[in-house]
Fold these 4 entries.
Entry 1:
Amino acid sequence: MNNTERYWYEIRGSLYLNICDRCTLRCQFCPKTQGINQVHHYDLSLARQPEAEQVIATLPDLMNYKEVVFCGYGEPTLRLKQLLAIARYCKKYGIRTRLNTDGLGNVVHKRDIIPELAEVVDSVSISLNAQDTETYTNHCQPQLKSAYLAVHQFIRRAVDFFAEVRVTAIEGLEGVDIEQCRTIAERYGATFVPRYLDKVG
Ligand code: SF4
């Protein structure tokens, strides 16, 4: 595996899968937006978006990990078919699966993808990022219309399908009110988890 094909990396005993280096946001706090390819010393840029079989063929022994996390560098749900196939493979080994997402998958695919995800994904972590549309737009520069509303809808629906739903926002970003983000998350029945800049996992 060379640097242009870094499909997985490890953080604190979890196996992180990098299946897509694209997304529909241009978050100002994201290394990618700043032209930095590296996360945790791993170069996560991809020469091509991989097929499920290509990722699976490179995976280490899953039994050595407590959890598989679809995270990467882009938005995993942009590669929904591949994500589902890889997660299905991982579940055959009884390993926990988690999806870190921007919560825009239903808008991208123009349908509700949550039931399909819930068949093979145990928990989701959804980036709310802000307490209102203006702050979200300022920090995330969404390319899709009504993106912030769509994130709310995704959270509200996700709590009915996944055993664990975490909602995140980054502490210390200008204009982001962490307590309001917490209130929004908890109102939907999700668990709020503050994040910190440059910390993945
Ligand atoms: S959604 Fe994630 S990968 Fe995309 S720009 Fe924002 S932080 Fe970066």
Entry 2:
Amino acid sequence: MKVGIFGGSFNPVHNEHILIAERAIIELGLNALYVIPTFVAPHKKGEVVASGEDRLNMLKIAFLSNDKIIVSDYEIKKQGVSYTYLTIRHFKKLHEGAELYFLMGSDMLDNFSTWKNPREIVDNANIVLIERRNGNYNANKLITNFENTFKKPVTRLKVYGTTVSSTEVRLRVMLGLDTLSLILKEVANYIAKTNLYGDNPLYNRVKNALPEKRRVHTLGVILTACSLAEKLGVDKKKAELSALLHDLCKYSDISDFPSGTVPENAPSDVWHQYLSYYVAKNELGVTDEDVLNAILYHTTGRPNMSKLEKIIYIADLLEPSRTFKGVDELRNAISKDFNSGFLTCLIEIEDFLVKQGKPVFDLTRQAINYYKGENYELN
Ligand SMILES: [Fe+2]
Ligand SMILES: [Fe+2]
């Protein structure tokens, strides 16, 4: 008898989870696979986590038709931090004599030795690495490290479907965007019916202010900004908030704002950065100066920008729905070296504006001069 264990926060369960579960059953020849949502995923603190009951309900809906899959409330019921060695102990007892297979992602395998009682886990279960498409890691190296440390082989489970993240699903729901390419229709219906993830006032404000296309752009800016923030050691929550609000007033009427909100000589393309800043500060109660400045200078840039300001500027320009000529080269420049890539982006923008016969705002010129100078000194 072979029994699999597949844990996670499942917040919510998405199409890639379903694919992983189905592949695991076939490839590993499992008689049963337990899908076990964690009570609280310790690394996900600060994110919107649906209640245990809702996550269980969505899993039951998603796996209804596969009778080898058992959705387990073991960790939810137990409450507190979920320790894998205890979960393994529990299922070992439940299925005496069975061979256990524990499924994990690359990040889990990477920090496995820091878990509680890793030896007990390895002694009682086969470790299965879920290899996803576009995984930003070296599987061979991870496995070699693991096998050298624990003297146990790792089973590889290749799941090369579309990469989906629960974070994107939640953001899409919060921005009122379609989720049907990421989750089952039945799960989407459950989320809609229960208004899961739907009661965030700032997201609702953006949802009501922007047309669909601009919300898709905002989603892209949030995801890009958060991933840059993580890489550069900037607070992800601040990146998310700045990205969420950066284009809030893209479609607002300037005459609805007090005079002086926008500088007199500012071209109309940049008005919305001043208006969005104004609303964030005066109506939405945003007090963090860095967040406010990231919104305020996201179109023009300025000299001496903070890391967060640069992140929002870059995310706005290069998020996935941007398709202008040369965008991939700029993405490469940024991933190679953030600061010099940033200057390249500023210069490209100036070039673009000049070629289009559009005005280059003073602030943008000042920013370019400033960063060119800085670069020159660095060299
Ligand atoms: Fe903008
Ligand atoms: Fe934007």
Entry 3:
Amino acid sequence: MDPVIDARALTYEYPDGTTALRDATLSIDRGERVAVVGANGSGKSTLQLALGGLVDPSAGTVRYFGQTTDAERVRDRLGVLLQDPDDYLFNATVREDLEYGPAQLGTSRRAADERIARLAAELGLTDLLDRPPFRLSGGEKQRAAVASVLAFDPDVLLLDEPFGAVDAHYRERVRELVGDHEGTVMVFTPSLDLAAELADRVIVVGQTGSIAADGPARAVLTDVCLLRENGLRPPAPVRLFEGILDADEMPLTTAAARRFLVDELGRESSDPSTTR
Ligand SMILES: Nc1ncnc2c1ncn2[C@@H]1O[C@H](COP(=O)(O)OP(=O)(O)OP(=O)(O)O)[C@@H](O)[C@H]1O
Ligand SMILES: [Mg+2]
């Protein structure tokens, strides 16, 4: 099957001469869960804009669904959530922002209403639907922006830092909603803990806007030298068990670390040789 996004040798230079993306080649298959990680200023958002067709690369091409290089022709299949929710919410009320995508797609009113009510309930927006987006807190805005992009159920989600200002409770809700998304997911984040929670594949953007690594989440997230060279902090469990466990048994998430410790402690307490 054709990749949903196939980018070849993408370079992007801002008008002031800053080269933010250098010769980036990547191909994303349908259904993949990809985290694009990198230090601040490495070029993640620029890559997201180029893949989402919101900027024209200075060199290179992006092909969508094996069909076209014109992002506008597949605009309704790409859910491009920008890093700053203020750039994403532009209607008079939160409800209108959530209704906008489904209305553009011609989704039936009833189906759209049901979907919006469900998303609003999950993301704690039900009582905020009639507010103007600019009268929300930072985390509420971010939740509203995530709800707006999920409301039209795009084939491909390209989410730039969807968790930044979101508190622990709603972070979990966002993670579940993104995890349950049936299409393809790309999340752009500097947090490797989030990458570990969400992704099967991790792409590292190096400090100069080129792709420094691209591979299975376990291989990339346990390569502590590669991560540190690129200004990244390995996931918490990897830092904890670094030098103690091999990559293949390393827990990548807090939940996995907890399970590992419970298993180990259970084993120790049932092993007579360890009883004091
Ligand atoms: N509008 C702009 N004009 C000029 N340079 C820019 C512009 N936007 C970003 N840059 C520069 O391009 C480089 C990449 O920026 P980008 O926003 O893609 O990084 P990022 O990896 O998303 O960082 P963060 O983790 O802070 O979101 C940086 O050096 C940044 O200063
Ligand atoms: Mg960014």
Entry 4:
Amino acid sequence: MNTYTVTTIEQFRAYGAKENVPLSELTSFRIGGNAAFVWEVNDYRSLAAVLAIAEEGGVPVYLLGKGTNILASDAGYSGLVIRFDRPTHAPVFVGNTVRVCAGTSLTQLAKETVAQGFMGMERLSGIPGTVGGACAMNAGAYGAEIKQILSRVHVLENGTDRWIDVNPDEMGYRKSPFSFPQRIVLEAELRLLPDDGGAAARMQDCTARRREKQPIEYPSAGSVFKRPEGYFAGALIEQCGLKGRQIGGAQVSEKHAGFIINRGGATENDVSALIAEIQATVTAERGVRLECEIKRMGDGVCIS
Ligand SMILES: Cc1cc2nc3c(=O)[nH]c(=O)nc-3n(C[C@H](O)[C@H](O)[C@H](O)COP(=O)(O)OP(=O)(O)OC[C@H]3O[C@@H](n4cnc5c(N)ncnc54)[C@H](O)[C@@H]3O)c2cc1C
């Protein structure tokens, strides 16, 4: 039960915020109770205004892109979820660069860059999140990371927006200075190369590899754990005999043991119990501590 003033609630309503929205509808895991308020970004000025209302009204805020790396609480979220999962403007191609809004789908953008005669995004193409989420996570696949092509990022920080030149040394494996709550990514500028004629084929190859290796037919949040130095999380989990292990509706995927899938009706509690069991078993049997890659949000969980 939230205790926000009528003024705050009316102000959110005036900006078109929705109330009591299931987080299960906003996250690819299809898990989570209700968010008290959800507001979808449609322009940057409104974003700054809505953030100011939340701050003034003492309402906690969480920022979501497409929610594809998120485990949301069964208890929901008594604050405001700002959802930035749609483009506010079309990509702008200038020379060998493209400037793109944070809400743009990474996969759609990859396709568009290839259609425009560029290469550089092929290996990122199947990652199901937004450009903003990819900047925040330094998302990557098949040896590529977004930091390799990211030149500048337009951020909102402490109520002010500015462009920041990217220093790739500040971005590491799933680590980035462009992540909420410190910064909100508004736009990104990516450096591309002229297509050598093979970009479309490489992109198709990555898509085929994902279809073959990943359980994309089930709701999930992708790889649950970061890759520990010198190992693969999925292989360690498999070696411990945990493939197929199920707690409630949450199961270690039979197809890729690095994924936990929602077999139907999984709760955050089920997933958390499975994560704890995997971590304890892998530590005991293989001496490796698995660290979560997925982010937790919502009431009663440590926000990460
Ligand atoms: C089937 C599947 C396959 C996947 N494969 C991969 C893969 O190959 N490689 C990989 O790296 N990941 C993968 N993922 C995980 C996920 O898609 C990526 O982490 C993605 O970059 C998250 O983007 P998102 O828009 O969904 O962000 P969300 O999941 O909504 O948010 C993730 C984090 O980013 C922050 N964030 C989101 N938008 C912004 C913004 N505009 N500004 C600042 N912070 C922001 C959020 O607050 C949160 O902390 C996969 C997930 C699934 C479900």
